[in-house]
Amino acid sequence: MATFYFAIVGTNDSPLYEAEFGAQREENKYLQQFVVHAALDLVDDAQFMTNACYLKTVDRYNDWSVSAYVTPSNIRLMLLHEAKAEEAIKSFFTACHELYMKTLLNPFYQPNATIQSQAFDTKVHTLSKKYLL
């Protein structure tokens, strides 16, 4: 089973949301966070090379790839993965962006604050099962 680590990173480079899908090993948890955080500089460089929100694979580490999606408000959706399903990853990012936009419409949510909603978490996991797993 493939391993996925998903993070939504705010404009101040702090994680707003994190989730893991598939087979996870405890010793890789911090390594996955480190690899995604290290790829943020590459995302910042790549976002000015194209007009598209979906940046495809921006970095690789061993067998893992880091794909990114940048919203117009500079929120970065990052996915660390082993699989090579570009269309499925793009669809997952698009659906997660729509879900994040619905969260922003909530008057009680402050932009760039961590997302602690159980409903949001459940929907992201449902999207991961639909597109990634």
Topology:
Layout lengths: L2 E7 L5 E8 L6 H10 L1 H7 L7 E8 L2 E7 L5 E6 L4 H19 L13 H14 L2
Antiparallel strand pairs: 1-2, 1-5, 3-4, 4-5
Helix pairs in contact: 3-4
Question: What does the model show?
Answer:
This protein is α+β, with helices and mostly antiparallel strands. It is built from four helices and five strands; from the N terminus they run E-E-H-H-E-E-E-H-H. A five-stranded antiparallel sheet has the order 2-1-5-4-3, with helices on both faces. Strand 4 and strand 5 (76-81) form a beta hairpin. Helix 3 (86-104) runs antiparallel to helix 4 (118-131). It is globular, with a radius of gyration of 14 Å.
List the helices and strands in order.
EEHHEEEHH
Number of helices, where a helix is a run of at least 4 consecutive DSSP H or I residues: 4
Oligomer description? single chain
Give the amount of beta strand, in percent: 25-35%
**What is the arithmetic mean of pLDDT?**
92
Report the count of strand segments. Answer: 5
Helix content: 25-40%
State the low-pLDDT regions, or none: none
Rg over CA atoms: 14 Å
Largest beta-sheet characterization: 5 strands, antiparallel
Query: Strand order across the biggest sheet?
Result: 2-1-5-4-3
Distance between the termini: 8 Å
**Secondary structural class:** alpha+beta
Which geometry do the CA atoms define?
globular
